[in-house]
Each structure stands twice: as structure tokens, then as C-alpha cells.
Amino acid sequence: MIELRAGRAGCLISPDDGGRIAQLTVDGHHLLVTRPQDEPGGTGVDPMSWGSYPMAPWAGRVRDGRFEFDGRTYQMPINHAPNAIHGTVFAEPWSVSDVDDHSVTMTRALGDHWPFGGVAHQRIEVFADRLTCRLGVTADDLAMPAQVGWHPWFVKPDEATLSFATMYRRDDSHIPTGERISAPEGPWDDCFVDMLEPVELRWEGLTLHVTSDCSHWVIFDELHHATCVEPQSGPPDGFNHAIEPGSFTRLEPGETLERTMTVSWN
Q: 20 to 30 A Cα–Cα from 179, which one of 15, 21, 52, 128?
């Protein structure tokens, strides 16, 4: 575990647990859901349910784990039946290439199950007033589709501003159909676009702002203990149907897709 500190803030980074932020603390407030304890006789901790982890080379679900690219069909391992979810790197160990008191840089090959090769890379920095995350994927010798994003599990706030003009209608598999509708009242497990107000999460004495240059935001706030605010460079299942331009990025050999997320506090 790597500890980063700056002023009133600190965070713990776990390279072995998908290169994730295991905890973010500001003025003594623990802001992320912590790693659950292993249950005796269980199958281990669910890596999808805690901290803040990077998603690459896709974000969210891929229907049935299957997609087509350049005329060929590819099958990803099913890790959230009946779909593949959150990419190939969120539960795998990352290599640390650089670290100091307030930043860490890590890399991770996209893995044997990703047939195109390539590598993911991220840099996490903590400052007195903010946390910045930069995440990218770089193609190897083959062209490939790509998305990136983050999945932070914030401790349930007392209040939240989650304001978007539209969201994608989803089907029974929680996958967007491509049809845009006006955003209804929550709770949600949905993909939103057209942000109306910056995302704010508020607890007594502390307000967080979440910003990103990503085009899509998945909001999951159906649970009593957590709210997930997930900036993504494209929508869930974007590989399978171009919901709109930018559903995924085509990377030619050597090209990189990179996005940022910033969490700041008052």
C-alpha cells in the first residue's frame, strides 16, 4: 500500500488491487467505501465493490462479453453474468514506475484476454485541495477499440447534486439502448450526458466536486451505503453500437486515449 499526502488530504493506493485508490481522506473524513473483510470459507472480496478503480480498455458492460471490430468477433471473459464488465485491469496488479510523497505513476498490460495487446497507464496526484487522476491506454502493434473511466465508490453523502439533461434508456440488462430520454428522479443505475450542474457530494463540513473531461457519466446510487459517480469516455456497451460519435475511440498502432478526473474539496 502506498500513502500519498498533501495538506489536509491523504490517500492510500493499492497497486496490487487493480491500481486503485483504496481510501481518500480529507479532514479526517473517509470518503470511499473500504475493502470488505474476507468471509471465512468465502471466495474472496468482490473487487467491483470498493475504493476507486480504473476501467480500461472499456468501461461498464459489454453485452454477453462479445463485440465486433474490423469484421471479426471477439469474446471477453464473463465476470458479471451474462456480461463482461469494467475492463481487464481493475482486479489485476499494476507496476509502479514512479512514486513520491504526493503522486504515483503505474502501468499495466491490458492482459492475455485482450487480443489486441496494449498497455494502460495512470498517474494519481494528491494536492491540498484536490485529487487528480489521469488514465490512458496505448495501442501496441494492432488497431483496437478503447474506452477509459473510473469507478469511485463514495461513502453515501448527506446530499448530492447530480443534474443532467438526458440519460440513455436502458434495457433489462442495464445496458443503454441508444435512446435518449429526460432524466427521471432517482435512484439510478444509468448513463447520463449533458451535465446541467457540476457534480457535488456533501457531508457535514465537507463538499466534494467531481469533474472530468469524459463525455459520459454513470450514476449508481441504489445502495444505502454508497454513491458511485463514474466518468467514462463512452457509454456502456459502446463497442457494440455507436450510440453517438465518441462511443469508443479507435486507436491505431501506437496511439493513446487519455482522460482525467479531478475530485476537489471546499
A: 52
